[in-house]
Amino acid sequence: MTHAAWVVLSTVAGPSGEYRETSGGSGVWSPDGALAAQAGPEPGAVVTAILE
Questions:
Q1: 18-51 as b/e, with b when 16 or more CB fall inside 10 Å?
Q2: Of 12, 14, 25, 48, which has fewest CB within 10 angstroms of its CB?
């Protein structure tokens, strides 16, 4: 919050290596910490956010 930066986190969804399941949940958070967009746990999910 000090630097008013947007945060984008990309995580694996679906099987990965020795793990049969992963959590997914990639997302975008605004500078105030509010969730702007979040993908679910399904592989191939895509989210977009307009940064203002």
A1: eeeeeebebbbbbeeeeebeebeeeeeeeeeeee
A2: 48
